[in-house]
Amino acid sequence: MTSSESNAADHVVELIVHDASQPPPPPPPSSSDDSRDNVDAQIAPLLSHTDRPKINIFTASYPRRKPRDEVTRLLESESSSPFTPCILWIWNGSRYSGLLCMALSSIVYFLMGVLSNLFSVQAIPLFETAFTRCTIILILSYLWLRRSEQPLFGTSNVRIILLLRALTGCISMLSFVYCFQRLPFSQAIVLNSTTPIMASVMARFFLREKLKIADIASLACSFFGVLFFFREMLATQEQVVKVAEVSNANAKPSHHIFEIIVGIFSSIIGGTSYCLIKAGAKASDQPLLTVFSFGILASPAMGLCTYIFEDFVLPRIESILLMLVLGVLAFFAEVLLARGLQLERMGKVANVQYMEAALTQFWGVALTLVSPALDHLIGILLIVVSVFCTMYIGPDKETE
Prior knowledge:
EamA_dom; 16 helices; 72% helix; membrane; disordered N terminus
């Protein structure tokens, strides 16, 4: 008994709590690790970027396309129209979406001109018409942004772009209305037709976009098509001016130099506004913000000009309905324009705008049912070939 008790007393179990075991120390570097470190040290300077890219308000970082933006989500959730899949495909479902949106915008502008010519029953001053359209654009864009739960003024990094876009768009519209009132119709339209060319040139400087030879050729071809439309009118007007100067030698010659300068300025500012639309839509990934920002400034500006420079004309019921329809169409045209500029390079998408001029001339030829002039046919052919080549070439393979 004594020996067994002593053996039991000798076996004592002790519980000792240790700290978490530390990871074993790394093995000493071998020769292969040394050689790998030397290779990495030699490659590292080649991979480092010492020169940071220049950034301005036009070149904010953004994704070119989102798989599902807010407009797409809103259409999918709240629209049951059978045309919804087609609209979504045009908006964001194809690599041609930018060109298709710009083409639809030109078609909508063409339809606005047709409706205005067919159903216009009352002469409304230009500033009053512009005020009505800008107000409708402002209201519709506000409702759309509220419905999609988007911030009205965007984030802080795009507000300056939206402000400049609204300012340049408003100045361009004011100067164009001034030229349209002071210049002959043909000269005002030709000057306004230079806006896509100016936009492509401005995009070369502000957005650092490449202006390829094919883009220059397409823009030149379309612009010459517009010149063919008004060649006879411009020549006739020049003869009328010469006859008037000869018949009245004491009268001062009227060459509209100042108005032409204002028209060129309007075209340059309009091209800059296109670049700001593109930059704002890309930076915010929401083209409706550029439309809303323009309406905020343009609507009160047009109303002020209506009060100062023109006598207010009370429209009749037919004119009110027509102005409402044209305002709604102008809203969709502006949204499609902003979307097209957002998705596609300026040199390509600007040329598609000349579709409106070709469709207008073709409609005039079809409506009169008379033998069209050769100049008009040549102009239509030039624009159709130019736009078809742009659509056939399609967007660039590499994402801008």
